[in-house]
Specification:
Layout (H helix, E strand, L loop, with lengths): L4 E3 L4 E5 L2 E4 H23 L4 H27 L1 H6 L14 H20 L3 H25 L14 E3 H4 L5 E2 L2 H23 L7 H17 L17 H20 L12
Parallel strand pairs: 1-4
Antiparallel strand pairs: 2-3, 4-5
Helix pairs in contact: 1-2, 1-5, 2-4, 4-5, 5-7, 5-8, 7-8, 8-9
GO molecular function: phosphatidylglycerol-prolipoprotein diacylglyceryl transferase activity
GO cellular component, one term: plasma membrane
Family: Belongs to the Lgt family.
Length: 271
C-alpha cells in the first residue's frame, strides 16, 4: 500500500522563448472546447441556430474570466488589490475564484438572454450548467498540475506530496483538486442524463437548481479538508469558500421548490 504519492510535475508543458504553454491554461481552454461541442449537440437537438451558440461562447469566456478574477481579488485579497488596482488585470500572475466565476457567468448570461438571444434565462442556465460542471473538472485538474488549492496534511494512502509548491520536505496532503474534479465529472454525468431523460417536458430552472445545491453543498463540505488559501482564514470556523457557498445552496433550494410547482414546457425537438 502506498504511503503517499510524490507529485513533482512541472506547471509548464513547454516554453519557446517568451511563449509558455502551461497545463492549467490548456485544461482551462479544453473545458470551453469540450463544452462547446456538447452544447452544439444540445442546441441542434432543440433546433437552436449555431450562431447563437457562438455568441453564447463569447459571453461565457468573457464573463468567466472577469468574474473569476474579480472574485479572487475582492473576496480573498481585497486590501492588496484595491491598493494595486492595475494588478487586477494581470490574470497571468494567477488568482481565479470559482465563486466569482459563478457570479460572472450568471450576470453574463442574463445580458446574453436579454440583449442577444431572447431565449429564457432559466432555459439557458439549465443547459449551460451541464458543461460548466465538466469545465469545473478541467479547472481542478489544472489546479493539480499547478500544485495549488490542495488539502490539509493527512496519512491516507492516496495522499500527495506537492513538491513543486512545498519543496523536497513536503508533507502528504489530501489531493482535494482530484476530489472536486471527480465530483464535477459525476455531476456532469447526472445533469446530462437528467436533461436527455426530461428534455421534452422539463420545468425551467430544475437542472440549474440541482447544479447549485449539489455543487456548492459539496464545495462547502470539501473545504473542511482544504488548507487555508489566504492568511485571514486561519482560525475561522468557516472559511471564505464556505461562506460564499451557502447563498448558492439556499438559492438552489428555493428555486427548486418554486419551479417544481410550474408546468413543464413541451419543447419542439428538431429532427
Amino acid at each position: 500500500m502506498l504511503n503517499y504519492i510524490t507529485w513533482d510535475v512541472s506547471r509548464e508543458i513547454f516554453s519557446l522563448g517568451p511563449v509558455v504553454l502551461r497545463w492549467y491554461g490548456l485544461l482551462f481552454a479544453s473545458g470551453f472546447a469540450i463544452g462547446y461541442f456538447i452544447m452544439q449537440k444540445i442546441f441542434r437537438k432543440e433546433g437552436v441556430k449555431e450562431e447563437v451558440l457562438d455568441k453564447l461562447t463569447m459571453y461565457m469566456v468573457v464573463s468567466t474570466v472577469i468574474g473569476a478574477r474579480l472574485g479572487h481579488c475582492l473576496f480573498y485579497e481585497p486590501e492588496y488589490y484595491l491598493s494595486h488596482p492595475l494588478e487586477i488585470l494581470m490574470v497571468w500572475k494567477g488568482g481565479l475564484a470559482s465563486h466569482g466565476a459563478a457570479i460572472g457567468i450568471l450576470f453574463g448570461l442574463y445580458l446574453f438572454s436579454k440583449n442577444v438571444s431572447k431565449l429564457p434565462y432559466l432555459w439557458i442556465l439549465d443547459r449551460i450548467v451541464i458543461v460548466v460542471a465538466l469545465g469545473g473538472a478541467c479547472i481542478r485538474f489544472g489546479n493539480l498540475f499547478n500544485s495549488e488549492i490542495y488539502g490539509k496534511v493527512t496519512d491516507v494512502p492516496w495522499a500527495f506530496r506537492f513538491v513543486t509548491s512545498d519543496g523536497p520536505n513536503a508533507l502528504p496532503r489530501h489531493p482535494t483538486q482530484l476530489y472536486e474534479a471527480f465530483f464535477c465529472i459525476a455531476l456532469f454525468a447526472f445533469l446530462l442524463w437528467y436533461y436527455y431523460k426530461h428534455v421534452t417536458q422539463m420545468k425551467d430552472g430544475i437542472i440549474f437548481s440541482f447544479f447549485l445545491v449539489l455543487l456548492f453543498a459539496f464545495r462547502f463540505f470539501i473545504e473542511f479538508l482544504k488548507a487555508e488559501q489566504v492568511d485571514f482564514e486561519k482560525g475561522m470556523s468557516l472559511n471564505m469558500g464556505q461562506w460564499l457557498s451557502i447563498p448558492f445552496v439556499i438559492i438552489g433550494i428555493l428555486l427548486y421548490f418554486k419551479q417544481s410547482k410550474t408546468e413543464p414546457h413541451n419543447y419542439v425537438i428538431a429532427k
